[in-house]
Amino acid sequence: MKKVIKKVIILLGTVALVASTVAWYRNHSENNEVVYQTVPVTRGDMQVTISATGTLEPEEVVDVGAQVAGRILSFGQDVNGKTVDYGSQVTEGTVLARIDDSLYTAEAANAQAQVEAAQAGLQRAEADLEQYAAKFQQAERDWRRAEKLGHSESLARASYDAYLSAYETAKANVAVGKAAILQAKANLSQAQAILSRAKRNLGYCTIISPVKGVIIDRRVNIGQTVVSSLNAPSLFLIAKDLTRMQVWVAVNEADIGKIHPRLPVTFTVDAFPGQTFFGTVGKVRLNASMTQNVVTYTVEIVTDNADGRLLPYLTANVEFELLHLADVLRVPNAALRWKPQTDQVAPQYRKGGVKTGLTGSQAAARASSETSTDQGSDGSRRTVLWTLDGTHLRPIDVRPGASDGISTVVEGDGLTEGLPVVTGVVNSDSGTSDSRNPFAPQFPRRNRSQGSS
Predict the structure, then answer these.
(1) Cα-flanking dihedrals φ and ψ of residue 248, to 5°?
(2) What is the rounded distance in angstroms from the CA atom of residue 176 to the CA atom of residue 180?
(3) Between β-strands 234-239 and 213-218, what pairing exists: parallel, antiparallel or unpaired?
(4) What's the CATH architecture for 48-57+241-325?
(5) Is the pLDDT of residue 277 over 90?
(6) How confident is the model at residue 256 (pLDDT cuts 50, 70, 90)?
(7) What is the tens place of the pLDDT at every residue in 17-60?
(8) Residue in 230, 203, 232, 211 with CA at minimum distance from that of residue 220
(9) 211, 240 Cβ separation under 8 angstroms
(10) Which strand (E) or helix (H) includes residue 178?
(11) What is the CATH architecture assignment of 66-100+205-239?
(12) In the list 2, 73, 300, 351, which could disulfide-bond 282, CB 3.0-4.6 Å?
């Protein structure tokens, strides 16, 4: 029996606690007015941009390599008389480095000796040809005399045949001499080609700058051995002109259609905070790249760097200026997204209410938050803003325009500069703002005026 009485007492206490909680909640809700967060409609300029990140690159870079293998003996001197190093100013023909040339000097000397031997062989062949020619002339005269005498008592048959054989042999020797000269000339040409190659390789041991510019990278040290095989090893990287720079920007495929040459661009770099640099789009490269199923195109931006402040390979935060509108009305995007509950709308704008420019169905649809954007009679995109009407809200039909991601250009009847538009609801208990996330759960809220009626 005592247990039953105890359970009844606990049940009655629980019911009393719930009843008091409900009474407190009702009293608290009825005395808590809705406080709206508003911002004024502003007038000013609107700039529509596309944001991207890129890297500063020299406009033209020359990679200086080595065509021969060997050990680096020394570096040359720049235009200021200092040893070539990072940032050195060089001109065309400046000696950058010297490679050990002992092997190539020996090869050149050997090739020179071969040339001289070939020249001597040519001279000998020419002398032999002169000798063959003299013997041919003598043999030809003897043969002519023997031919006149013919077969007679004055000239035996054996002598006649000997003169003929000597003539034909001398004639053949002349042809051999001419062939020997051709061969000697060919040997000389081959030796000269080998000598030219040896001298060229010897010359390659001195690395010179092919252009005027600034060394932005030195990739070897003294004593290091460079090996030239199929690919020439890179020794220096020279930027021809750092007074003009490029920014290579990766632009998403969804935005690349808006980018075109001569489009104005602004960008900033972390090295100079608060300073804005300007440029224009030079070209859009067609060789797209894909990373994790995201396709991007490289856009080249040309910018002036006459003061030399911009350095190669700085990261640039780029803004492509797609559109610039002057003296337009703007509202935050949050004002276009926010939607009220039905009981927060003034009664005349609820379902069945009358408002110029809105049908009853449109007002009811907007008031019940079933839609925020529709098509106007002229085919333009339309949406609604909400402003205070006493303790309630009234809609303003507007046509949204360009947006910079934060604010949107709007046009509409009754829309004036300074007009407060609602962007959310301020929770009076905590002082926080409720921006009415459409995906968050919504709980019914009683209006004080309704509760008192």
Answers:
(1) -95, 115
(2) 6
(3) antiparallel
(4) Beta Barrel (2.40)
(5) yes
(6) very high
(7) 445 444 444 444 444 567 889 999 999 988 888 999 999 999 89
(8) 232
(9) yes
(10) helix 157-204
(11) Beta Barrel (2.40)
(12) 300
